[in-house]
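Entry for the shared binder. Reason: the reviewer on the internal report wants the predicted structure included alongside the sequence.
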Amino acid sequence: MGQGVNTQVGRTNVVCNVCGADDMEAVHPEAGLVRCRRCGLGYVNPQPSDEALARLYTDDYFTEPIDPGGKSYLENRQGLERFFDGRLRRIERLVRPGRLLEVGAGLGYLLNVAVRRGWKALGLETSEFASTHARREFGLDVRCQALDEAALPEGAFDAVVMRDLLEHTRDPRATLLEARRVLRTGGVLALSMPNFASLNARLGGLAWRHLRPAQHLWHFTPECLARLLAECGFDVAECESRYDSPATREVHAALSDPEQRRRLAWHAFVRGDVVFLPLGSPVRRLLRVAAAICACFSRFVRAKLTDDILEVSALKLEANR
């Protein structure tokens, strides 16, 4: 998609990566975030320089706590591996374990689980710190390269995983096309990313933790992503959204409108969460039991794509389709 030089040093003007339109409206001007009027894609415009982005992705990205008082990626191996085991099970409903590529492999936790589950795994990770950790700690084949630098063979993989990656890339369309090239026909592309159509995104504004305009250059809705995947030769097999409790608590605390606060509190309650009481409150613990029961009965009727994180699996179509 087209680009242009911006008067701000090192920054580049871009057009919509989904529909190609240069027709945008400001969403959060102070953060440089706009929305395409044609298809609804959110994006940062103008976009930061490569040097500015490089300064964000230091070793601290992996070694500092994700939340204040919480664990870093480095410290949260057990929890992340348990979560990734569940995501791999979802992939295996669509394709048998074979050759798996993870783009943005991080510290290697997903690949480590994949190997245990019978996959032959390869990872690409642009952080020297993270890729070295994956090789030394787990003996994994993780290369310090971006996807467009790796020159991987065509049709070499049964599954390609890109978690929390597409929103960071310069050109999501080109990234998806290269992922398609290295996948075999019928292979699975597994994606996760923030959901720009989530209730938290719509209510929270800059208080929504997944906005991160310095890092997240593109913001997809389910409809935008489905369109882009189809144009890149994929068929969406599964699309769901995953609830994020810390993000919901932060947005609830930032809202001043009572009606919006009540709406978000109910949204959380039917997902088994209580966001309007302090974390250590005994009353909150009791209410969470009731919320959990409510969540069991409401999961079949509540809106399915209004939570914070999109989890998508797509199949590579034959070339002539």
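Summary line for the report: Residues 282-298 form the longest helix (17 residues).
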